[in-house]
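Milestone 3.1: sequence recovery, worked example.
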């Protein structure tokens, strides 16, 4: 699933001969960073109600990165830097990426395979 998400990301750029949509791939790299730095590498803190300074900061940064992943293609389309087709391919790539992350998270919660 992850590789198909990356493929769509590259296709959104290559089909329309415009590499601005690759800017949203930067957000794909930034989304897991708060989890790695503030959450100790575990995704369990995202669903907990426990707080604290660093945990709340990690939740905020993860949410801001996720919103940025959707907002960047919209902003680029509004500025007429990308076409509507490239924006739609970016959205499909994002939703496949989110599905991959959710499957990975669920697999990590289950200790027995």
């Amino acid at each position: 699933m992850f590789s198909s998400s990356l493929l769509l990301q590259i296709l959104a750029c290559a089909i329309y001969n415009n590499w601005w949509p690759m800017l949203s791939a930067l957000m794909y790299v930034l989304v897991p960073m708060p989890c790695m730095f503030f959450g100790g590498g575990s995704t369990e803190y995202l669903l907990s109600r426990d707080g604290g300074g660093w945990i709340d900061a990690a939740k905020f940064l993860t949410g801001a990165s996720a919103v940025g992943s959707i907002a960047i293609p919209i902003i680029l389309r509004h500025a007429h830097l990308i076409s509507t087709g490239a924006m739609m391919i970016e959205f499909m790539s994002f939703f496949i990426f989110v599905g991959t992350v959710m499957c990975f998270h669920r697999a990590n919660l289950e200790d027995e395979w």
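The longest helix spans residues 53-78. Helices lie at 2-15, 23-30, 33-38, 53-78, 84-109.
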